[in-house]
Structures are given as C-alpha cells and as structure tokens.
Design goal:
Oligomer: single chain
Number of helices: 7
Structural class: alpha/beta
Radius of gyration: 21 Å
Largest sheet: 7 strands, mixed
Bound molecules: NADPH dihydro-nicotinamide-adenine-dinucleotide phosphate
CATH architecture of the largest domain: 3-Layer(bba) Sandwich
Shape: elongated
Length: 312
C-alpha cells in the first residue's frame, strides 16, 4: 500500500460534526484535512428551513447553514477537499485512510463524522415531494405544520417519539404501522396509544403520497383486507430508521448491532487509540445538528489531547 500523504489530523465527513471538528482542530494548530464525502454538508443539505439551531435568530436554510459552517472552517485554516473515504486501515499506530479508491493518507489522529442516512420507503412520490411536506425529521420540520393534520410511517422508538412530538404541534397525527404491533418500547407505545390526537392505522402500508407541488394526502392499503384509504394530510413523516454510514469501519471499530460506532461514555474515543467518532455516526438518540456539532467539538479536543500526549 503506497502512502501518498501524511497529515496530523484527518476528518472524514462534512456535516455539523465534521465542520465543527475542523474549526476546533484548526484553531488548535492541528492543520486538519477534511474530506467532504458523498454529500458535502450532509443531511442538512436535504432539509429546508432550520429554526432550532441556536444563533440563527431568523432561521436558516439547511444548505445555507452548511455553507456557513464550511466557510468558517476554511477561514480557520482547515484544508477542505472533495473526496470520499473508501477504505481504512486502523491496524497500526499511524492510521491510514484511502480516498476515492485511490490515494492513501496517513494520519496521527482521525475524526470520523460520516453521519447516518435516513431510510426511505422508496416511492416515487416520496422523492418528488421531499422538502414539500415529505420529511424524515419531525423535530426539524414538524413546526411548519402547526395545527395541521400530518401522517407518520414507522413503529419503532423514533416513530413513537416523533408521533408524540408532532401530537403537541399538529391537530392530528395519522400513524401508519405495517404490522399489528409496534416495535417501540412498551412505555413509548403506551404513550402513543394514550394520546387522543394520534390515530393508528394497523397493518397498513403506504401506497402513495398524493399532491402535485406539496403533500395533500396519503393513500394507504390495509395488507389484511386490501382496503384502500386516502387520508388528507399536509405532511408525511418517514421514521423507519436510519443507517449509520459506518460500513468501511466495520473491520476495526466496535459498533452496536445497528452499526453505530461505540464511543467511551462522555467522550468521542473509539476502541482504537487516535480514532474518534462524532455526530450521527455514533448517536442514534439525539441526532440533532447542534448535538452533532457538540460532539465534533469534543472530537477535536480529544484529538488534540491525544496528539499532545503522544508528543510528550
Ligand atoms: P427501528 O429499526 O427500531 O424501527 C423501524 C420501524 O420502521 C419498525 O417499526 C419497522 O417496522 C418500520 N419500518 C421499516 N421499514 C418499513 C417500511 N418499508 N414500511 C413501513 N414501516 C417500516 O428504528 P428506530 O429509528 O425507531 O430506532 C433505532 C434504534 O434507536 C432502536 O434501537 C431504538 O430503540 C433506538 N432509539 C431510542 C430512542 C430513545 O431511547 N429515546 C429514541 C429513538 C430511537 P417493523 O417493526 O414491522 O419491522
């Protein structure tokens, strides 16, 4: 394996976690190199308005916010590059990351912030109306549908949590569950079942999301009776799980069953010294831009401490 470059601090991923790590690592003099990955800016580039990120008093468009993050990291001196990490080798003291199936980079410290991707149903209408009432984040977008009727698909803890969140904002939440039971924990299920403005459609699958320019209704089919039903709604939330972008790290890093990288509680330390994980790659519970940014900051501070100890 031929190494083409050696850096002190390498950051993989360009969501709030990666850029925040780059800001802190640059200011600490670690001369970070950041590779942006397949979707520069991450999941926020597919959302519309962000109103819950502190500091943007008037709200901000997700893509614009990520441009701001990138500019700030660049201004601090981060070397931001377009490229995708395709392979890693964390077996030695110095870590190696391959970019674009080609060049290998050696780094003393690596910060992983490759995020997670929401799972989608895979319907044409879901893709077409994404950002026009279709969303994979109730906490991000629920507020735009205040006092409106909305639908949510999914039956895990995320769907239950998001349905409860929406029930406080929206007039009615239509929850579409594909089996006759929920996967969510009993306590969450009970909360959902006890909430008067959440209506559950058991054994139902989404056939189509209806609407030309924005979501107007959802067409569902009962998979026991084959009955088809159209429910008028202003938004359609997809909460069928996320997939952390961790496949290439599997041979080296400890992960949970779903593939989220395990970190030492209260830190961003992974099981490999000098490899740190931040953002949604290691967080299946909070998954917010601000929490991702927080752990990005932690990762840079952890890396700085690690490199300092290595030198002395
Ligand atoms: P899960 O994988 O637990 O649940 C996904 C849900 O989506 C399941 O009910 C599944 O149905 C349903 N689903 C999947 N594909 C489809 C489809 N094509 N059509 C319709 N429904 C579909 O994901 P979550 O994001 O809910 O949770 C992930 C992990 O994070 C879990 O371990 C969860 O406990 C945890 N979590 C914990 C929280 C907390 O502690 N506060 C909050 C949020 C998550 P089916 O059941 O039929 O397979």
């Amino acid at each position: 394996m031929e190494t083409n470059e050696k850096v002190q601090c390498l950051i993989i991923g360009s969501g709030p976690a990666g850029y925040t790590a780059a800001i802190y690592a640059s200011r600490a003099g670690l001369k970070p190199v950041l590779y942006q990955g397949i979707q520069p800016g991450g999941q926020l580039t597919i959302t519309t308005e962000v109103e819950n990120y502190p500091g943007y008093a008037d709200g901000v468009q997700g893509p614009d916010m990520m441009v701001d993050f990138e500019k700030q990291a660049a201004r601090m001196g981060a070397d931001i590059r377009f490229g995708v990490a395709t392979k890693v080798d964390f077996s030695g003291d110095v870590h190696k990351v391959q970019i674009d199936d080609d060049k290998w980079i050696e780094a003393d410290a690596v910060i992983l912030s490759t995020g997670a991707s929401a799972k989608w149903l895979g319907l044409e209408s879901e893709e077409r109306l994404n950002g026009y009432g279709v969303s994979a984040c109730a906490v991000c977008d629920g507020f735009f549908f205040k006092e409106k009727e909305v639908a949510i698909v999914g039956a895990g803890d995320t769907a239950a949590e998001e349905a409860l969140y929406l029930s406080k904002i929206c007039s009615k939440v239509h929850m579409i569950v594909r089996r006759d039971e929920m996967r969510a924990s009993k306590v969450m299920q009970n909360r959902v079942l006890k909430t008067p403005n959440i209506k559950i459609y058991w054994n139902c699958e989404t056939e189509e999301i209806l609407g030309d320019k924005k979501v107007e209704a959802v067409k569902i089919k009962n998979n026991k009776t084959n009955e088809i039903q159209e429910i008028p709604v202003s938004a359609f939330f997809v909460a069928i799980g996320h997939k952390p972008n961790s496949d290439i790290f599997k041979p080296f890093l400890e992960m949970d069953d779903a593939g989220y990288v395990k970190t030492k509680p209260g830190s961003t330390l992974t099981n490999i010294a000098g490899v740190f994980a931040a953002g949604d790659l290691q967080d299946k519970v909070y998954r917010q831009a601000v929490t991702a940014a927080g752990t990005g900051c932690m990762a840079a501070l952890d890396a700085e401490r690690y490199l300092g100890a290595k030198e002395s």
